[in-house]
C-alpha cells in the first residue's frame, strides 16, 4: 500500500501515532475517519502517506494500538 488510513480507538492514540511517525520522517495527517472504517473508532484517523509497512511496525513496537489499517482511496 502506498497510502493508508490507520484507525485508532481514541484521538489521543491518533495524536501519539502521528508524533511517533513524524519523529521518524513518515508523512501523516489527522483526518476524519471515513464512514466505511468508523466501526467503534473515535472519529479521527491517521492518513499515512509513505512507508506504511514500517509505520505498522513502529506503532506496534511503541504499544500504540491500531484498530485497523485500510487503503486510502479517499480521492
Oligomer: single chain
Content-based structural category: alpha+beta
Helix content: 25-40%
Envelope shape: globular
Strand content: 15-25%
CATH domain topology: Alpha-Beta Plaits
Alpha-carbon Rg, integer: 11 Å
Mean pLDDT: 91
N- and C-termini, Cα separation:
15 Å
- CATH class category name: Alpha Beta
- Element order: H for helix, E for strand: EHEEHE
* Strand neighbour order, sheet with most strands: 2-3-1-4
Q: How many H/I helices?
A: 2
Low-confidence stretches: none
Protein name: DUF3343 domain-containing protein
Pfam families: Se_S_carrier
Domain Putative Se/S carrier protein-like: 4-71
List the defining traits of the structure above.
single chain, 75 residues, alpha+beta, Alpha-Beta Plaits, 2 helices, 29% helix, 24% strand, globular, DUF3343 domain-containing protein
Brief overview:
The chain is an alpha+beta fold and 75 residues long.
List the helices and strands and how they pair.
Elements (H helix, E strand, L loop, with lengths): L3 E4 L3 H12 L5 E5 L11 E5 L3 H10 L6 E4 L4
Antiparallel strand pairs: 1-3, 1-4, 2-3
What does this structure look like?
- With 75 residues, this protein is α+β, with helices and mostly antiparallel strands.
- The chain has one domain: Alpha-Beta Plaits.
- 29% of the residues lie in helices and 24% in strands.
- The protein has two helices and four strands; from the N terminus they run βαββαβ.
- It has helices spanning 11-22, 52-61, and strands at residues 4-7, 28-32, 44-48, 68-71.
- The protein has a four-stranded antiparallel sheet.
- It is globular and about 30 Å long.
- It starts with a strand and ends with a strand.
- The mean pLDDT is 91.
- This is DUF3343 domain-containing protein.
- Residues 4-71 form the Putative Se/S carrier protein-like domain.
Amino acid at each position: 500500500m502506498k497510502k493508508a488510513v490507520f484507525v485508532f480507538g481514541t484521538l489521543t492514540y491518533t495524536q501519539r501515532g502521528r508524533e511517533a511517525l513524524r519523529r521518524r520522517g513518515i508523512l501523516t495527517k489527522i483526518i476524519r475517519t471515513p464512514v466505511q472504517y468508523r466501526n467503534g473508532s473515535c472519529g479521527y484517523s491517521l492518513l499515512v502517506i509513505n512507508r506504511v509497512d514500517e509505520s505498522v511496525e513502529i506503532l506496534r513496537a511503541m504499544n500504540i494500538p491500531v484498530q485497523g489499517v485500510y487503503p486510502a482511496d479517499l480521492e
